[in-house]
Amino acid sequence: MPRRLSHRGLQAFRVMMLTGSVSATAATMNLSQPAVSRLLKELELDTGLRLFDRTKGRLVPTAEAGLLLDEVQRSFVGLDRIASAVGEIRKGRRGTLSISSLPILASSLLPKMVGEFLRRAPGVAVRLDSAGSQTVTQQVMTGQYDIGFISISVPLANLQTVRRYSLPCRCILPPGHRLAGKEVLGPGDLEGESLVSASRRTLMDTQVQALLDRHGVSPAMPVETPLLPLASLLVLEGAGVAIVDAITAAHHERLGGISRRFEPLVRLELGMVRRLDAPVTSAEALFMEICDGQMARYVDQDMDELTA
Questions:
Q1: Residues 37 and 183 occupy one common structural domain
Q2: pLDDT in tens, 253-293
């Protein structure tokens, strides 16, 4: 029967899995290598699992070790956050707000939101990350981040969608493009064009592909990228045109590019998510208020206002 697990043994296991060697684990934990080997052997006895294969003097993690690491990581993330909070309190700060976001916000509006937040909440530290929707969802679910910005098309579990933002999409062009003279573009205008497309099947990309198929349009797709800000840069370099959200389109125009309304309307649905079981802090409430103010400008406003 598995015995009570040793916290020190779990710590040694985690460091071993992250560093890949007994010597690095020993140095990190300020222990001797035999002491680390003993902790790992005792953990195997305590769990009843074979966590490592001994091959030519090296410890090679087994499949069971990979599964256990996932659970151990979740526990240590919580401990790391407590240690971080203690450090912030010692420095006289009033907590930390952690945010993980899709790149479309992280590279555009998020810095503005955070700047305003820091001005209105001095003493609160902010921790930021940027990743795809699935990664952001996992980060928030496991408590690594307080708030996440994701595509609504991603399935949610144990998360609360506290805000929904429906962003109209536009067609972005390089300077001097032949379509720049038109105020509104449609699927037929993309015939013969090179389209920088999303390489991950999002709801927005699905809508675009359905429109193109319905109108019998088959543009060349020489470049695929899941990053809409990167799509903007590729368009500026002449790689083609792209359908992007209003935030990315506004930033594209600030960089010297062109954007035009695209019809029929395609929307990118963004959501702000947080854990269901976590109470809303005053810092989170303030950030939500700031986010509402910034995002409202991009929902139904004219492009002239957004790029001014």
A1: no
A2: 999 999 999 999 888 889 999 998 888 888 999 999 999 99
Same domain? 264 vs 173: yes
pLDDT band with cut points at 50, 70 and 90 for residue 172: very high
- Name residue, tokens 């992280």: 106
- pTM score, whole prediction: 0.65
Q: Which residue has the tokens 């035009």?
A: 260
Q: Which residue has the tokens 């912030």?
A: 88
Q: Domain of residue 277: give its range.
A: 92-165+269-298
Q: Does residue 277 lie in a domain region?
A: yes
CATH code: domain of residue 204: 3.40.190.10
Looking at the structure of the chain, the number of domains it has is 3
